Amino acid sequence: MTISQTMIGDRVVPRRRRIRMSSVFWFTLPAAAIMLLVVGVPLVYSFYYSFTGWSLVLPGSDQDFIGLLNYTDVLGSSEFWAAIRVTLIYAVVAVSLECALGILFAVLLNMEFFGRGLFRSLMLIPMVITPAVVGIFWKLLYEQDSGVFNYLLGTIGFEPVPWLSLTFALASVIIMDVWQSTPFFTLIILAGLQSLDRDTINAAQADGANAFQVFRYLTLPHLVPYIMIAAAFRIIGVMADFDKIFLLTLGGPGNSTTTLSVYAYNTGFKVFDIGRTTAISWIYVVFVLLISAPLIWRLFRGASVNRH
User: Comparing 17 with 94, which gets the higher pLDDT?
Assistant: First the structure.
C-alpha cells in the first residue's frame, strides 16, 4: 500500500478519491443541516404531540400525555375511512387518466408538424399555474347558472349540469386535476420518446412491423421507467392535494370530496384538536409510503440493475 492510499474496511481507497469524498461531505453538510432543522425538528415535534390531548381551546392540554388514544380514535372513525376511500378514488382515477392522456399527447407532440413548438409551450401552461388559482378558476367554470361549461351545453340543447353537487363533485375535482397534471406526464414521456433509438424503429419497420407493433413492442417497453417515475411523483402529489380541492368544494357537499388532507385540515382548524390532527398526519405519511413504496422500490431496483 502506497502513501497515497488508505484502508476503509478491507478496501484500499486512493488519496484522490478520499479527497473527493471529503469534499462531497463538506459541500452537502450545510444543506443537510438546514433540512434537519426545517424538516426533521417539526417532524419530531409533531410526532410527540400526536401522543397528547392538545386542543387549542383547552389551555395546558399540550402537556396531557394520552398514549395511543389519538391513533385508535382516528382509526376507529368512520369519517377517516370515508376520507381514505375518497383519496384512493381520486388518486387512482386521476393518475390513470393523466397517464393515458400523457402518453397520447406525448406521442402526438413527438410527431413532425407545423407549430409543434407552439403546442409544446402551450401544453405547459396548466402545470405552472398555482393550485389556488386553478381551484378558483375551475369554480367559475363549474358555476351552474353562469359557468362556461353549462353555457356551452346550453348552446347545443343540453340541460345545465350541477357540477359541484353530491353526484358530480368528485368527478369535477378529478377533471380539474387531470387538466392541470396531464402536462407533467406528457413532459416526462416526451423526454423518453426523444431518447428512443431511431435505428431500432427503422429496422423494425424495414422488417414489416406496423405502427401498432412498433409502439407495443418497442416504444411502450422503453417508456415504462419514465411512466413509473411520473406515476410515483404524481401519486405522492395527488394524495397531498389540498388547496385546489378546498377552494373548489370545501370538501363537500357532505364528505363527497373530503380527502385525507382536507380531513386533517378540518380537524386542526375547525375543531382545533392538534393532537388528533398530528396523529392523522402521521397515519397519512404511513399511508402514502405504503402506496408509493412499491413504485419507488421498483425504480431503484431498475436503476441498480442498469448500473451493473
Answer: 94
